[in-house]
Structure formats: structure tokens, C-alpha cells
Amino acid sequence: MPPRVALRDCRERVPQGPYGWDKSLRSVHVVSSKDQQIDESHIRPIGVLKRQPTLGGEGDDGSEGEEDDDEEEGEGTFQHVSSEERKLRDITRRHRDICKKYVQIKSKAKSVEQYFGGPEDFHRFLKENGDVLGAVGEKGETLLHHFARQRKGQLLVRHLVGDFPELVHQKNRNGYTAPHIAGVQDTCNQQFIKAILKTREKIPALHQECGNGNLLHIILQSMLPIVEIVHNALKEVSDAQQRHKILEDLFACRDKKGQTPLHVAINTIARHNTGLTTPDIPPMIRFISFALAENPQALSHTDNIGRTPLHVAVKAIGDSFASPPPSQPSPNIEYLIDWVQDLTTRCPREFYKRTEDNRLPYELLGSAKNYTVLRKLSEDIKRLYMRELPVDELKEILYDVPTVGTQPHSSGPGGEKTIYFDLSNDAENNYTYKRLTRLARHVQFESILHHVDLPCLTVSGGENLLEDSQSDQEESRRTSSLPGRVDFVKVFQWLRSKGVSEIIDVSVVDDCNTPHCEEAIEMALRGFGVEILNWNRFDMPSDAIFNAAPGVRELYLYSSSNNEVLRGWSAPGGLEKLEKVRADEF
């Protein structure tokens, strides 16, 4: 019978270790079928039993510990120690020695040479260790991986990256680069990241992905003091196209939740009880504003549940006012409110995008939109929808229950209001002030109206409407003494008295024979911020239009072929003063 192979200790047995094998086991014996031990003088160790490490090691940072032992004991496979393995072990041992000795040096030197005691000592260090400084040791780790776990080493790290830039991108066998190791430690190694960001590899390092986003994700989540360094590094890219491409790629990267760095930044700002101090937040706001100015597309990326960064920001604002509401929003939320407020002007189209459950940003505010501190933001978002969306869709967004345009109705539990005033289909064109008042006795208007549509009509009575209590005495006299017709002045004054402050679209059919004078039109529309003006009156002068609706975007003109008026429209200082109207629309 051929001899059988068994594992035996060359010394006397001792109690087993935690893995079932005695810790002193270091050799293999060949035993005959009769269990007779051969001459031990010929026995020599040919390998060790090693426990196969698991991915992720002892933590979630991809590191597998910094064991000082060259061998690991435990159950597993029997592996032959090759010369290559011994070489890797030696590299790792020397990496650890370098790292240990370096961090033990107490110095406030400003250069790596001074840190080592002078140029001669530093060059001696390079000569003695030059063969391993750029080498890869066990587990695919470099000297940078070891320094990523230390709190010292900026000067040497910068020198290493200068001589061996590839070290920044070397991944260990778990797929982590040294910057990622530094970023996902329990206490983030900001000093190491700062050192990397001062090298020529700073931009490529930010792009590095490790299966859960890039390095920028980590910095924006847990290394806020470094955000300003990143901001400055990106601003230093002089080529505009290159800078745009860098930011486009950085902010398109997604983590496991589908979140881009912008999503992460918003979540970081919105966190309530993280110990973040107010000075941490303005640099973050400046950075993401800079990124959006260079790459507005970053605001369009959605996460795994269909939310853009704007959705995340608005929901965070709304949630911060959940019951019980705070007396004052936290400083972080105030910064977020200002940022979203700015986006209503800079990126208005983003407010029309819906989440997967079909909600617009305005709806994500929830009941918070009723708070005074959010009134301006709420009104600005509402104005965007008034400009673009049809009335029926507006009702669904602003209120859960559809409302009626001008007909009396009771306010429902949702506090719905009337969003337009339209008399164009009314058969009766002769109104008294009392009838006008009865018409909307139970109507509560929104402060911003989608449109006002008035046919040619007369309004008898209501002269008190011409005495504007909010105007000074001289202005009131001017209004009450206007020549000619003042019917529409009364209607618009009445709307003001009902709480209307803005009207997006105004359509008026004036009397062809006795139209309202220019001053009456100015008085009627003053301060409403009209954006679409269709006042059906021939030959309205440029000055009257400008004074009535200086921010008009869409303008309808009616001409009787009066050459003087036509010249006035086209002359310098005429319609060109209307900055928001394009010339090709005249």
C-alpha cells in the first residue's frame, strides 16, 4: 500500500488554536500506511497553512489590517510560498518600516529634505529604499496605501506622487486606491487627501471610482474643509472646454444609490444634527454654484428613485418644517433655501421636472410652502408654473381639488384659490361696482394670476377704487383725475384690493372709438409685472408700454399705419428698451 499523507506536528501536540489547527504547526510529515514515522532528520517545512482573506477585510475601506506577522494562521488552503510571494512580503515589510519610522519623526519642517534632517539624509533614504518606493507589495498595496492610514506624511506623499504618479491610481486587490482608503477610514484622513490635491495628479485622483462613486463623493460627504481646495484646483484649469469636460465627468458619476456628487452635497448641507458648523457650508454652496455655472447639466441627473438634486433639496427644505415645525430653520436649511431661490432664475427649466411618483418640486415642499420664511421661494416657483402650464394642470399642482375661474365657490380644505380672472365669455358688458363685488364675493385670488382676460366693458360706480390708499396724495389725485375712460383702471385696482400682486398674461379689448389714454393704461398695469401684454388699442406709444410693463416678454401691437408711431417704435429708445422682448418678435 502506498504511503498516505497526513499533517502532523514535528513536536508534541498542544491544544488546538481557534481555527482547529495548532498554532505551532509548521511542517508536513509523510507517514506510511502503518503509521510509522519516517526519519525526521530528512523533514523540512515546505509551506504554511494560510486562511484565505475575505474581500473588504476588517472594515469597509478595502484595507485588510496592518498585521506585523509575515504569516497568517487559520483554516484554509495549503499554499506554496513562492519566491514572488516572499518578494511581495519583503516589499510590504519595508513599506511598513518606512511608514512607521517616518511618522515617529517629530518635525515642523516645510520641505521633505528638512523633515529627514537635511538633503544628505534624505538622499540616503532614497538610495536605501528606492527599489520599493514605487513598488507594489502584498494585497496589491503601495507605500501610499500605508500612508493613507496615517495622520502624518504629507511631505513624503507629495514627493512620492511626483516621482511615481501611478501610485495614486494603483488599486489594492479589493479595488481601493490610496485616496479612497484615506477617505473611508472611520476618521477621514484629510491630511492625506490635501497632500494628493497639491500634486499634478489632483484632477485624475478626483475621478477615481471605487464601486461607490468617486473621490469627490467622499469629499463632499465627510471632508468639508477640503471642498474649498477642490474648488480652487478646478478653477485653476485655464482651458474652459477642458474645465467643462472635467466637471461634466465628475458630476455624472453615480454611487450605489445612483446619487451624483451634487446629490451628496445637497444631502450633506441638509443634515441637521451632524455637528457641521456654519462656516463649513458657504464653501460648499460656492463650489456647487461654480460647478452648475460651468455644467448646468449636473442638475438634471437623477438617482435610483428618479430624483434630481433639486428634488432632494426642495424635499429637505419641506421635511425640515415637518411637525413640530421649528421657530426658525437651521442655518444649513437657510443656505439651501437661498440656493434653490437662486435656481429659479438660473435654471428655471429644472422646476418642471417630475419625480418617479409624478411630483414637481413645488409639491415636494408640502405644507412648508405656507410658512412666511418660504413665501418668496414658494411664489417664485409658482410664478414659473404660471408662465408655462395650462390652468387645469396648475390647479392640480397648487391644490388637490380643482377650482373655478371666476365663479363663486367655497374654499375647500386645501385652501384652494382662484388663479385667473376671465370675463371674456360674459354676455353682459355693463358692470356696476356692486355687481363686480358680488361676482367674486366668495372668491379668494392667488397673489399671482395666470391671466386676466377682459372684453370691452364699462364699470359704473366704484370711484373710491381710484383713490389708492397705498399711494401718496399726489398719486391718488392723478389717478382720480385721469381724462377719458377709467373702466379698466377700476378693474385692476379692484384686483389689487383682493390681494393680487402679479399677473402673467393680460388681454384687454379696448374701445376703438374712446380708448383708454396712455396714462390710464400705465395706472392700470403699474406694478403687476405683466409678462404677456395684449392690450387691443391702436398706436400705443413705446413709453406707455415701457411704463406699464417694463418686463414684458411677449407683446402684441396694433397699428393704424400712423407713421409717427411706427417710427417711435423702431427708433432708438423706443421698443428696444424692452430688454426681455427679442427684436424678431416685433
Automatic annotation (TrEMBL):
Domain of life: Eukaryota
Positions of region (Disordered): 32-87
Naturally occurring in which organism (per UniProt): Aspergillus neoniger (strain CBS 115656)
Ranges of biased composition (kind: Acidic residues): 58-75
Protein name: Ankyrin repeat protein
InterPro entries in UniProt: Ankyrin_rpt-contain_sf
